[in-house]
Amino acid sequence: MSDEVRTGKNFKPKLELRNLRMEYLVREGSIKAVSGVTLFVDEGKITAIVGESGSGKTSLVETFLKILPRNARIRGGEALLRLSSGEEVDLIKADERTMRRLRGKVIGYIPQGAQNSLNPVLTVEQHFIETLRNHGLWKPESSMSEIHSMLSLVRLDPDTVLKKYPFELSGGMKQRVVIALTMILKPELVILDEPTSALDVFSQRVLLNILNDVSMKYRNTMILITHDIPVVAELADRLAVLYAGTVVEVGNTYEIFKEPLHPYTSMLISAIPSVADIYVKRIPKPVPGEPPSLLNPPPGCKFHPRCPYAVEKCRTSEPPLYEPKKERFVKCWLYSGGEKL
Amino acid sequence: MDLKALFPFGKILGKRLVYALITIMIASTVTFIAIRSMPGDVLYTLAASLAEELRIPFEEARKIVYSIYYGIEIEKPIYVQYFEYVLGLLRGNLGYSTYFKRPVTYVVARALGWTVFTLSIGVSLSFVIGVLAGMVAGFKRGSKSDFIMSSTFTVISAIPGYAIALFLYIILSARLGLLPARGAYSPDVEPGFNLRFIADVLYHAALPILTYVVTTFSGWALLIRSNVAKILEEDFLKYAEARGISRRRIITTYVGRNSILPLIPLLALRIGGMIGGSTLIETIFAYPGMGYYLSIALSIRDYGLLQGIFFMMTVATIIGVIIVDMVTPFIDPRVRREVAVA
Amino acid sequence: MSSGAQTKSGLYLFYLDFVKPVLRSGRGLFGLIMIAIMILMATVGPSLIPLDTKLKPSMRWCLPSLEHPLGCDYMGRDLLSMVVHGSREVFLIPFIATIIGIIGGMSVGLFAGYVGGVARRALTAVTDVWLTIPSFPVIFILAYVLPKSPLTIAVLLALFSWPGLARALAAEVSSLKTRDFVEACINLGLSKLYILFREIGPHLLPFVTYNFATLFVANMSSLIGIVLLGVAPLNPTNWGYLLNQMIFTYKGLLIPNGSVIVFLMISILVVIKLGVVFFAQALEEVFNPRLRTYE
Ligand SMILES: Nc1ncnc2c1ncn2[C@@H]1O[C@H](COP(=O)(O)OP(=O)(O)OP(=O)(O)O)[C@@H](O)[C@H]1O
Ligand code: SF4
Ligand SMILES: [Mg+2]
Fold it and tell me: Which residues lie with the beta carbon below 6 Å from any ligand 2 atom?
């Protein structure tokens, strides 16, 4: 099926991941943290990637940014990035020089644990200046005011924050500095890894509002990584569900919430506390069973040991990504009647 | 004007001065014990010759010897003796050398410079070399070359300083005759600010300096290596890469500064050990610094010299530590802020 | 029967977890052999190898041979026999010093870490001062003037062996105190002292072991150093004294053969020191698997 049919217009995704695979080498063997991820990230939209802790969300991003730990090995696949200039780059094949040009400037990445993401010996101001300088964007006349307005956008007072060192800022403030620092380069694609997980409820709220403002203002493409599904519901246009290093379901957020197709997705959604749950202080039951070992993942569909619908086929062969409905993709044998991607 | 703004180091300096005072008390207790437990014959010889020369009773001569040579008023109660003795040391009355027949300050004045000269060059060189070597190993952590480098550092840092001094002496001086191992300069050069003299001084200082460098650089290298390995896994490094920060800047400002900073307080702690360790090294190379005179003082039982030299070693250590302390806030923003708040 | 089988499997597990990894790492094995040699030297060595006291002018500074594996000294005496006889003092005094230092450092460190607050700050202040004193001259001077006995020298060495350990332990204990398992113990109503020794103790064991080894070799170097500089030894075969005589009295470094013998002599010291350090590192890796290298 062609892209034109799929999206209805002549519109190509900002980022196309095809069958991306990566593993970590450890003494016991190899951890297949990314095992055949196929995902399209649409231009100008917010795509959320959700999955349990350890499902490989961070690993996936670090794979196509190629900032992996030393024991990681990319085992194949492609990651096609379409720049606004019209240039197309396969990140997996690109050399380190190209990557350095793209990182920050074209793809902004806000890593998990932004609390520790600033250099302890530099002031906030020095962080901004070095970042702009490194991309040849530092203009003595105008850059400072740009930095001021960016900090205001993330609701920080530039005059007090700029001269501070990271250890003088609270966790939430550091997080916002990191967002401003990433946005100052006006990246075409922004990736946020668990932006809310380390924050208290109030700071989470503020942060979500800030993210909303930022995405309204810059209209850049965003990838939002989280295991916090309510956050997704609020912000994301599209949703990708990651399980054991593969994408099991992709689609419009609203539609997935309304009618999850993959058995894992529906269990995940029914595990979200509802208003009634909160009212009677009931904790809904989490997805039963253990997450699979990525060291020795189960054969066939990786979800089969936990899946109530599993059949013999599920235990032996891995399902492909089907498109049972328009714009809905699901990796499950239950939909084998539908169209294959 | 706000005093703190003028002099932000007040609190650090105050703390250090208290520490310094305690250190000096401990050091002077050591020398006090040494002098009070001096063997009788040493004292007897001195007192007897004095009594004969001045034609005074022996007991009186003994008092004078204690007072002039060591700054101890022997007839007073012991705590008064001690107190006045410490005050005397602090006022610069370091005692009298029986061998040189001069106040110890005379010997100290000639010896201190050589020790400070060789040690400061040795410490700076070893720090720089250690940091560079440790960075290389740290960046290559887990590789074969890292294994070879780290093993070499471990082996070298397990060798005592005097053993390294002896190894270097045997190879470079005794066997190959490349470097001199006696004195601070040749007797035939004219001391002064001329090229020949400076070259000669460096030539003579080469073995002690080389010993300090070889003895200590590997310790720094091992520390830096483990710091670098830790920092390379830090979130802020990943974010710097994700932001497209250049490799060069990552190496200097991210890995470099953050791995070196924790070593600065250690540098302060090691000064004492290095000054103390110079005793053996200067003796082996017959290099006329304080350590050399300290061992001479013991071998000829010159207790005045012994007390004066040891006291100066302690003072030199304290000054070294204070210098490191004063410089730290300029290098480490965290300390700078702490100081400013205090 | 069954209990026998259990102890056997327990022993076997101990072998698998602790002995085998040490033996398998080259450094660990080397260290173990060195330590075995040290123990043999200091215990049965002197009775196996008689002390050679005969002066043989023809054998002055003779190079190593089958008859004299380490060569001869300035008087033609067999060096090996003297090294073996000197080893007792050279190993025993630092050993005692290290035990005293470790006990002192542990008590102070555990106490300060456990009580926290003022006690820890006081400890930091005291150790700050202590660590800035030029320790070598102090040991050197006091060993020279005080009445000579193995215990005096051991105590002097111990005087400077405790602060590093005390400080590190205090830091370790205060961080352990906040861990879950300790809090669980407190909730179980166990007494604080009981927790300190029974629960925190095992966590600190590897740390203390490693410190023991490094302190021991440092004290050994200091002991040999002060004797080398002229502090009278208790035993004329003390390695420091042998070196002192060879270097300063008989100017061995200026004699080609003499420098070879001195070289050999310090190499023995270095190899032994390395053995202990390597053994400690291998042990630390066993205790602390995080240090094992991946990939
Ligand atoms: N450097 C590494 N070496 C070995 N295994 C690793 C490494 N980094 C991550 N892993 C493993 O890879 C798997 C995926 O980790 P990843 O951090 O990508 O998960 P995640 O979805 O981001 O989880 P979280 O929500 O906790 O951030 C996990 O099982 C993790 O233990
Ligand atoms: S493929 Fe089979 S096991 Fe996997 S989710 Fe679908 S039904 Fe369940
Ligand atoms: Mg993650």
Answer: A 262-263, 301, 303-304, 307, 309-310, 314, 319, 332-334
ipTM of the complex: 0.86
Helix (H, G, I), strand (E, B) or coil at C139: helix
Q: Ligand 3 (ion): which residues have CB within 5 A?
A: A 58, 112
d(CA C117, CA B52) in angstroms, rounded, equals: 62
- The phi and psi torsions of C194 (rounded to 5 degrees) equal -60, -45
CB contact under 8 A, C253 and B295: no
SS3 percent helix, strand, coil of chain B, rounded to 5, is 80, 0, 20
Question: How many CB atoms sit inside 10 A of residue B156's CB?
Answer: 18
- Picking from C293, C295, C283, the residue whose alpha carbon sits closest to that of residue C20 is C283
Q: Residue A36: helix, strand or coil by DSSP? A: strand
> What single letter denotes the amino acid at residue B275?
I
**What DSSP designation does C68 have?**
S
Tell me the sheet residues that pair with C72: C78
For residues C224 and C241, what is the distance between their CA atoms, to the nearest angstrom? 8
pTM: 0.84
- Cα B78 to its chain centre, rounded Å, is 31
Domain boundaries, chain B: 106-300
Token couple for A252 = 């419009």
Q: Which ligand is nearest to the CA of A244?
A: 1
Is domain B106-300 in CATH 3.30.70.100, yes or no?
Answer: no
Residue C234 vs residues A26, B138, C266: alpha-carbon distances, Å: 55, 45, 20
pLDDT (tens digit per residue) in B167-208: 888 888 777 777 777 777 777 777 777 777 777 778 788 889
Neighbours of A134 (CB within 10 A): 20
Q: Closest residue of C to B23, CA-based?
A: C129
Query: Token match 């470097």: residue?
Result: B179
